[in-house]
Design a protein that fits this description.
The chain has 446 residues and is mainly alpha-helical. It contains 18 helices and 4 strands.
């Protein structure tokens, strides 16, 4: 949560081995170190990967409210949008492990997630606004509290202390673990080099909380945003992009945590409002050729801007707020223009119905815990070298497939996190707690 001048996208960062040197913070707090690389054999005892920056602010801790956004009056879940949300989650995990910058162009997960959440919020606001906001907060905060209840005590147990110079303000900031209106504090170094808890583990653990903050801001602003959109749709949709052009390019800098939150709000605001347009059916009223060509022009502008503002991470749009805002807006517009509104996944996609349903019902849990789970997965793969015969015999193979092995290991660990903490999402939504809500044996949307 370092720089106020750029958004944190995708909820995490690329992973680099701790032995490669000092981890440099991302310019935008997004994901940004070199892709994860296998360590040299001599460094095996200390090569557990750690994200190079704050969690890539953008993967998206999706809305897991148990509903899917869709056109007004359409009952049930929209499985096309559920599929997009699940793909966004997987893309976040893959990006945070491999650090491939081109993934931010191929599929801007965070923009997609905010667009879907905006559509859902607009549909919900057919009810009284105060009740809808309370409901969203009730669904959002308890999973975060469960996460904080584990992470924060560990920080203190590892000798984290209040910052004396900040006085009482430090404790106010600590309250962001309960109500994330701002950026929560964390120790810059905690744990031990090469240990199960790497020195930067707290930094990485707190990284995904940027999304909870951004989502909270959007929820609180949505009643007014929706009124403004329905009165002046074009102005409201374009206003966040214009704001990004001012505060996301360095033209004007808003300092501190408020500046960080404001940039996040601006970068993804148009995607959120685009969700309003999708819910209201306005996208269907625009001639298809005009909508697609306009979206393509906006995306083209985003790539053009990025080409002139490349950072050391190259085409990582998470580092380039204005490019992220425009590319994500055009990308999401095309996805929603062609939304088929499936009642069930068609053809071969039907085989993925269970995982897609599970990912949507446990999206917040998966997103909050995935950074810590990646670190845990790396440590498990490290242990392969300690297994008699296996480590010596397959030394080269383990090293060459190190990241792939981590990617394999992360999913069983994710399953354990779902079993341990996912039920909190049900309690928050006032549903009966379920350990594995993949939709099997239940009605759709359960």
């Amino acid at each position: 949560m370092t720089c106020p001048d750029a958004p944190r996208q995708d909820g995490g960062s690329a992973w680099t081995p701790s032995h490669r040197g000092t981890v440099h913070p991302a310019h935008a707090g997004a994901a940004h170190a070199a892709p994860f690389a296998p360590p040299a054999p001599a460094d095996r005892t200390a090569h557990a990967p750690v994200p190079s920056a704050r969690a890539e602010r953008g993967s998206a801790a999706p809305d897991s409210a148990g509903e899917a956004p869709g056109p007004r009056g359409r009952p049930g879940r929209d499985r096309y949008l559920d599929l997009l949300r699940a793909v966004a989650l997987v893309r976040v995990v893959v990006f945070h492990l491999f650090g491939w910058a081109w993934l931010t162009v191929l599929f801007p997960s965070m923009g997609v997630m905010f667009a879907l959440a905006g559509s859902l919020m607009a549909r919900s606001l057919a009810r009284p606004a105060a009740g809808v906001v309370r409901s969203r907060l009730r669904r959002l905060l308890p999973p975060m509290w469960a996460f904080s209840l584990v992470v924060v005590p560990v920080m203190f147990a590892l000798s984290w202390n209040p910052v004396r110079e900040e006085g009482l303000w430090w404790f106010v900031e600590l309250g962001s673990y309960l109500l994330p209106l701002g950026a929560p504090p964390f120790p810059e170094e905690s744990g031990s080099a090469g240990g199960w808890l790497e020195l930067s583990w707290a930094d990485q653990a707190a990284g995904p909380l940027w999304y909870i903050r951004a989502y909270l801001w959007f929820v609180l602003a949505s009643p007014l945003l929706l009124k403004a959109f329905r009165r002046l749709p074009r102005v409201t949709l374009s206003a966040p992009v214009a704001l990004t052009a001012v505060i996301g390019t360095g033209l004007v800098t808003v300092p501190g945590a408020f500046g960080e939150g404001l940039v996040d709000f601006a970068v993804f605001g148009s995607c959120w409002i685009l969700g309003f347009a999708h819910n209201d059916g306005l996208l269907k009223e625009i001639p298809r050729y005009l909508a697609v060509s306009s979206a393509a022009l906006v995306m083209g502008f985003g790539l053009w801007w990025a080409s002139g503002h490349l950072t050391e991470e190259g085409w990582n749009l998470d580092e380039i707020p204005f490019a992220q805002a425009t590319w994500s807006l055009g990308f999401c517009a095309i996805l929603l223009l062609h939304a088929p509104s499936w009642q069930k996944l068609p053809g071969r996609l039907a085989a993925w119905d269970g995982p897609v349903t599970l990912a949507n019902n446990r999206a917040v849990t998966i997103y909050l815990w995935h950074n810590l789970l990646l670190m845990a997965a790396a440590h498990l793969v490290d242990r392969l070298w300690s297994v008699p015969w296996l480590g010596d015999t397959f030394d080269a193979q383990i090293e060459q497939s190190y990241e792939v092995l981590i990617l394999i290991a992360i999913w069983p660990l994710t399953a354990l996190a779902i079993l341990a903490f996912g039920w909190v999402e049900d309690v928050a939504a006032r549903r009966r707690p379920r350990l594995w809500p993949n939709g099997k044996g239940r009605t759709r949307g359960a």
